[in-house]
Automatic annotation (TrEMBL):
It comes from Gordonibacter pamelaeae 7-10-1-b. This is Fe-S-cluster-containing hydrogenase components 1. Keywords: 4Fe-4S, Iron, Iron-sulfur, Metal-binding, Oxidoreductase. Its EC number is 1.2.7.-. InterPro entries: 4Fe4S_Fe-S-bd, 4Fe4S_Fe_S_CS, ET_IronSulfur_Cluster-Binding.
Amino acid sequence: MRSHVERAFEGTYPQAVKHVVPMLCMHCENAPCIAACAVEGATYKRDDGIVMIDKEKCIGCKACITACPYAARYYVESEGGYFGSELNEYEALMYPTMPKGSVDKCTFCVERIDAGKGEVQACVAACPAGARVFGDLEELKKQAVEKDGFQLLPEEGTNPAVWYVPNVRNE
């Protein structure tokens, strides 16, 4: 569960509208999780701006979870799979990166970025509406602003790298 989707409904049938808002780590410029982390270097920002967790250093104190205004982090309570203790082949690939007693979050699929093969992020590939994009932040920010895009919780002063574009319809 490196991200989740919030759903809200507006209006009444037959003019009801469902809003779907993906919630993930915002990879903030001013990330409060880094400042809140009890262990130096357990939560850090890479040169490319991606906020990461060093699982070898994370002690699972949850201070970063409390500090995140986007509720984008979670505590790994179990080594078992989603459907039980037996891991399926996909869980077996990812669960070693999420040890019990540590904190986890979206990494923008950093392993795909670092591989340099141009593979898109898992959420981008899996989105049935084609509503997610990933790429050069400045270019995407420009496109988002042209479409009345916005960042969540600007009053927090975090300057998130994730932008949202309103009223995109899957026609």
